[in-house]
Amino acid sequence: MDVTLSLIPYEDKSILQNLMQLYRYDSSEFDGHVLNRHGLYLYKYLDHQWTDDYRRPLLVKVGGEIAGFVLVSLDVPKEFTKLSTAEKTNVISDFFIMRKYRRRGVGKKVAYSLFEQYRGMWEVRQTIGNQAAQMFWKKIIHEYPDGHIHKEELVQNDSWHGPVLVFLS
User: Fold this and answer.
1) Global model pTM greater than 0.90
2) Angle, to 10 degrees, between the axis of helix 131-143 and the axis of helix 106-117?
3) Which of 2, 69, 93, 96 is surrounded by the fewest CB atoms within 10 Å?
């Protein structure tokens, strides 16, 4: 299976905007996202994906077909992470694989590609009610070569409510 991960250029912002609708719909049962009066899910950080140097909006394709996206923040200082105490940490902000490609190894390939491309400390957060995401990330990290979780904690504060995993790639 040919899985690719590539930067989304600003000219293709509408692709991410459209995929974000699918992602927010999928996750609304866990995180409570609601439609606005125009029937859309808002994502206030969309433009930030191209204006903030540390952000990377990435498109996932399988055999040339769009299969999802990943939003990554690189080298986040420790004062802006939820659990990591490293000076700089990579954070997976959002990770979405379309249902058609789930349970086929696509998510694993994408995650491993990220961990190889951006070596260092990682922080992965999951929504409290999303058991499938929690099981996915624990399995992915445990199976990653030399991968083990440095910290795992249920964070409950003003900025986050849910499990957080910290590990080194």
Assistant:
1) yes
2) 60
3) 2
